[in-house]
Write a structure and sequence with these properties.
A hairpin with a 5-residue loop joins strand 1 and strand 2. It is rod-shaped, with a radius of gyration of 31 Å. The protein is α/β, with parallel strands linked by helices. The strands form 2 sheets. The protein has a 4-stranded mixed sheet with strand order 2-1-4-3. The protein has 4 helices and 8 strands.
Length: about 160
């Protein structure tokens, strides 16, 4: 029966970073208890597993701090919306395009919406022309993420930075 019980060995790293080599788990626990700290398994998939003698509370706190720092440095991509009409005037179009260029330069996605009112619904090709013009103008800076499509009384296209 005792032949089946295998003493598990671990690679132990001390509290100050010194390498104790490969020891049994019982010896590792004794070393940790003597130093008044905890035995923490750092790398369970290694052969043999790597354990370290350290203060577990401090270890968890450090891990939480690292996770928060990583989350803080993450860039969230927003979706900005630009609304136009099928018969948009040249100056209005240029103003909206300037805004689109700014949003794309900042790394945000842009949702371009063409809103149709009343009889404009009969001339959806005008809205499609405006969206094609936007796509052609933004071709070098951005890629079309969602092709123009009708949703109710509006035509929508999404462009994202390259």
């Amino acid at each position: 029966m005792n032949d089946q019980i295998r003493v598990r060995e671990v690679r132990l790293i001390g509290a100050n970073g010194e390498n104790h080599g490969v020891v049994t788990t019982a010896q590792a626990m004794d070393i940790a208890r003597d130093s008044g700290l905890d035995l923490v398994e750092i790398s369970p998939n290694a052969e043999p597993p790597v354990c370290k003698v350290l203060d577990y509370g401090k270890f968890k706190y450090e891990q939480q701090k690292k996770a928060n720092a990583a989350r803080k440095n993450q860039k969230t991509q927003e979706v900005k919306e630009i609304k136009m009409r099928p018969g948009i005037d040249v100056h209005d179009y240029e103003t909206k395009m300037k805004k689109i260029h700014q949003f794309i330069a900042k790394g945000d996605k842009v949702k371009v919406t063409i809103r149709f009112r009343g009889r404009e619904m009969a001339h959806q090709e005008l809205g499609m022309e405006v969206l094609k013009k936007v796509a052609a103008e933004m071709e070098e800076e951005a890629k079309i993420e969602a092709r123009p499509k009708m949703e109710g009384r509006q035509m929508i296209m999404v462009i994202a930075p390259k």
